[in-house]
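Collaborator request log, item 7. Partner lab (contact: R.S.) asked for a structural prediction of ATP-binding protein to inform their binding assays.
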Amino acid sequence: MDYSNLQKAEATPEAASMIETFRAIGYNLETAIADIIDNSISAKAKNIYVNRIWRGDKSIITIKDDGLGMTSEEIIQAMRPGAQNPLSERSETDLGRFGLGLKTASFSQCRKLSVLSKRQESSAAFWTWDLDYVAYSKKWELLHWIPEGFINDLDSQKSGTLVIWTDLDRIIPPCTEPTNENIKHKFSLSMDKVKKHLAMTFHRFIEDKSIKIFWCGHEIEAWNPFCIDELKTQPQPTENINSGITMKGFVLPHKNNFSTEQAYKRAEGYNGWIALQGFYVYRGKRLLLGGDWLGLFRKEEAYKLARIQIDIPNNLDSDWQIDIKKSKAYPPSIYREQLESYAKSVRKLAIEVYRHRGKIIAQRAGQSFQPLWREKKKDNKWSFIINREHLMIQNLKKLAKEKPEQAIETLLKFLEETIPTKSIYINEAQGEEHQATPLTNMDVNVIKQTLALMYKNELIIGKNQEQAKAYLKTIEPFNNYEELIDNL
Ligand SMILES: Nc1ncnc2c1ncn2[C@@H]1O[C@H](COP(=O)(O)OP(=O)(O)OP(=O)(O)O)[C@@H](O)[C@H]1O
Ligand SMILES: [Mg+2]
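Returned to partner:
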């Protein structure tokens, strides 16, 4: 297209509204801080310090690293929205993509973003984005300002960067006094969540000792979703998908097979077992999203021991639709079938962990193990029946001759307490065969006899025929046999 002869009109983004829009990208505190740490890792930091200072609505969050740092000009460039083109190629270890994270992550949580940075052999420099000033001046202008008390923060380091968030209006409401214990507690809980999120998001960096993250002075321990140190974890073969993408499944041990109860609790993470099943997608070594079946399956109790690692290189960002927050990824449709079939095999093994346990318990009890409920398969349908040979049933039959009420009550109690819900659940979740329709295994003569007896008793107590029949139709399971009732 030839642009030279066309009339033009300038349509520069309006600074104040544009920058407010950045706030609405949808980060939470965890994903925002993780995005800042991405930058530290890309800048080859070895130590990263996340800190918070509680001062009511003047509270502060800081993220400091000992990476390469920036000169004053480089800070200005870094502060520019869209500092880099998302299409340009990045080094393998660069966790960035859009040239936005520093700004969007920060503005999602605060109104003032200050950056103090220092390159080796040069002095520290600083610049601040202040949303109130942008709103007032309507200009894309940084301020040469830094919150009090931080200007010398990098003096003891050769190089590094300090990101300071003040005016944390999204986390702490304006006019909050430092004495407000309620909000202080909430702030503290949010920061605890951050700690756990970082332990998971960067666990591979922490494990291979390429970085250390300190949270309020304490070193964060890695949280590995796959429990690779547990002897009874079953790692599955790695499968290559394409273009350097791989996946590897892990079936975690049954609760009783974890080395310690503490290890089991830890594996549960902060979201709980059910939430943490599914795929874990890594870009480089950085976890983008964890515990997600990527729309292929629902999360269910029965599959809670299945976790699958997917590794994608950073040059496939656009194929996987990586978002600005680095907390989403969608597999390209051409891979979905392969992901689904691999996941199915891992999920199946995860369910087997429960079946296997059932068998072990039976074996331990010896050959003569007597289950009260037996699974019955007929015409590809399953149902659970009571084992009539069970010793207790035999004994209750004898008791019924002398004390029928007590015998029936005991039987009912045992049935209530032993309904095999777990096995039913697993059968239901596997969904390969269906449950037999209730009452299809029932002898009609037994139903007729029972109905006749109950009908007679209702007439004896004074109901007329119509009333007695209407009453029987309200009683489960006879409500399914209206015709038999009408013929009484
Ligand atoms: N801690 C840091 N140390 C050194 N340089 C940094 C640091 N943080 C940011 N930068 C520089 O600022 C630039 C912009 O950062 P920003 O997070 O906004 O975008 P990005 O990391 O390039 O991409 P993305 O939007 O995907 O995060 C980075 O590319 C980097 O050059
Ligand atoms: Mg970034």
